[in-house]
Amino acid sequence: MLLLLALPALLWAATAGGGGARSPWQLAFILKGQDKSIAMPMALYVDGERERYYVVASGDNRLVSFDRDGNYLRDFTADGNLHRPHHMARLADGTLLVVERGRNSLTRIDLQRRTTEPVVLSHQGKEIFADRLEFADGELYLLDRASGRVLRLDQRLKVVGTYELPPGFGNLVDFTVADNRVWLLDQQNRQIITVGADGRSRAPWSVAEVSFPVSLAVDQTGTVYVLDRHRGSIVVYGRNGEYLYRFLSKGHGRQHLYFPRELRFDPWGRLCVVDQGNSRVLVFRR
Prior knowledge:
- The chain is mainly beta.
- The protein has a domain at 1-31 and 207-286: Thrombin, subunit H (Beta Barrel), CATH 2.40.10.
- It contains one helix and 28 strands.
- The chain has one helix at residues 2-14; strands spanning 26-31, 41-47, 52-57, 62-67, 72-76, 85-90, 96-100, 105-110, 115-119, 122-123, 126-127, 130-136, 139-144, 149-153, 159-163, 172-178, 181-186, 191-196, 205-206, 213-218, 224-228, 233-237, 243-247, 249-250, 256-257, 262-265, 271-275, 280-285.
- The chain starts with a helix and ends with a strand.
């Protein structure tokens, strides 16, 4: 009897909730720390060249690394010099860049020389409040919480370009770089806007099916994935903005999320979810 009662819910979780499309994603593995938990995971960085996952753990000021198969490798604390790490990326020369909320810095970490250099950024006389960070196609992009803009930086961490938001744009919470465009997620108006290399923005996409969007990711086919923090689910849209399906739900099991934080694709086509409330990262494969 209990199985019969649970069956409709299981079917709903596997389908689009109206469109009938089924999710092709299956859980591959879970990234956990050596002690089986990660204190307040904020972000995930994937180093395709070294085949490493790095989880940014703000709760205990460390970066936790894993191999390509999800096996724990080590913790890194920069000799205790990290202060509320929030996001990270690696430059082409191997330098790590870590956004630190504790001192509002974009911190350079040279692993070979074992040096840590916090840099407080500014632009046009105003301090930059660093948030999300991405290094793509040799370019460094940074979300500035103060101005609500995405900035493009050179290797010296100087601003060399800005992506201005169109009129009526609300609260920018995440961005990604894909298909020669910057994709911007507007949490307030629940929409996505893309900006091309020419600085022109395209018509916004509605993501009204998402109650509280916090992150987005785009795969190689142009399919867009939006993370719903309050419902603990991922909502999927086609390359033209059409709603396709939703999968996962709020909770604590292997197929659930609890106040998730970030979505990212790894170089091997796997979809990674920073599951903050459950102190872990889920990695899904098709």
